[in-house]
Design goal:
Layout: H1 2-63, H2 68-71, H3 74-85, E1 90-97, E2 102-105, H4 119-125, E3 131-136, E4 143-152, E5 158-166, H5 167-177, E6 184-189, E7 193-197, E8 204-205, H6 211-218, E9 222-228, E10 235-242, E11 248-255, H7 256-342, H8 349-368, E12 375-376, H9 377-385, E13 397-403, E14 408-409, H10 411-431, E15 439-448, E16 451-458, H11 471-482, E17 486-491, E18 506-513
Parallel strand pairs: 13-15
Antiparallel strand pairs: 1-2, 1-5, 3-4, 4-5, 6-7, 6-11, 7-8, 9-10, 10-11, 12-14, 15-16, 16-18, 17-18
Domain Signal transduction histidine kinase HWE region: 321-398
Domain Histidine kinase/HSP90-like ATPase: 412-516
Enzyme class: transferase
Amino acid sequence: MATRIGSIVLPLLAAVIWGVIAYRAEVDTTRRHAVDNAVLVGQYLERMIQTQTVIHSAVRVRAETEDFGFLRSRRFHEFLAGLEKNNVSMRGVAVIGTDGTFVSTSRAFPIDGRFGPRAYLDAIAGGSELFIDRIKLELRKEDAFVVASPLQMPDGRVLVIVSAVDSKLIGDFLKGIATRTGDIASVMREDGLLMIRNVPSEPMMLPPDAGVRKAIKVDPVRGWMTTVAATDGIERLYAYHKMGDLPLYANFGTPTAAVTTTWLKRALPVWVLFAAIGLFAALTANRLRQRMAQRFELETAHRRVEAAEKLADERIRLMRETNHRVKNNLSLIVSLINMQMRGKAGIDGNELKARIGAISRVHDLMYQAADGVHVDFSETLREIAYSPAIVPREHGISVICETETGIVLGPETTTPLAIIAAELLTNAVKHAFQGRSAGTIRVRLNRKGETGLMEVSDDGVGLPEVAPRRSGAAIIDALVQQIGGEISRDSGAEDMSGEGRGTFGLRMRVSFPLPAA
């Protein structure tokens, strides 16, 4: 199932990732295209305006040293007409008073008259050094771009030099730039007046919240954004570019729908390829799954046979190990009985019961262990120490058990050590508190390097000067030797543990090697 899902999901995921990357690449390509075209429009307009400013400089040089009467002469008219004749794109050049009165023009002589308010006249009168507008010319009603600049006369009078360029030439250039359906190339004045577009339209003042005006506030030189056009309501990706020191911006935009369409045309063949790959992968995965299922069934059957054989071998091994362990324990019990029988007192049923109980408890803990063999001896020692069968409660003897956890031992050490602990506790109960109704037995277990230490001490009477040899001592010595350990006996000495417990009656300390980690 996972293979089948993967064969479908992975090609689908790859198609989605590739689609996102391809769309971003298409947006980036469109943005670069828009930026390049905006720069191209700006360069064209800059050259055109620069040509007009050169003409204005020529008029200014010719007129600034003459009086006002010269400006109204035929000679000056012919000078202006010569300037226009050398530039076929021009639609006239004139000198006008700031009140709208004609002074001289390249198109007619003599000329008299006055026209209504013009934005460029107000701008020059207000101190502007250069103003660009799109208007209908007064004389021939031609649609033109006009460039206006001031003319300072020797008598202090300020006149206006105005030159006009055919708007159709600019419009045709913009059409040549914006060749794709929906593309828009335009020229905007820095005050927000959309002067001309590649489609026939009148000048339009864009609102302050228009996308391009908001973008210009962030970066007044160049930039790009996605916005809905105020002119036709179409969302486009726009780039804008300021034309040097001129108060104009060149704009170019491509509809986002066109970006999406182009992206889909490019992405569809790749998606079909991914779909084919996914279908092929799904079919291949299905066949592979069937083969794997067959192989899995064969391997499962083979593993079942091997598991059955292994289980049979394990059961045989466990049976042998159990029989061997039972045999060892029975041998140990027989040895314990023989030692007591050789003693003068004969067999003590309670002592034998305690020793066999210790062996039984060790086996209980081993069966509960994770591996059925190794046990934490601290738990075993605590259960033996607090067992009422070994330390009867009616004797008034208190047991304090201080054990370090994590001392894990196997059966070859746990069983003898448990019997040693039971034997030491039993001896303490029987002999340490003669003539007393109460006492304390302290049991400790800890490690020191690679050696384990078990200590059983009491605050009883201690050993007599001549201690009789008992069967219990022989059992302890034999078991200590069996586990490769050592035993020491201290009687009536001061407790050197540093815990301020004074003296003790008898302390039995068994040291034994710990198994390698």
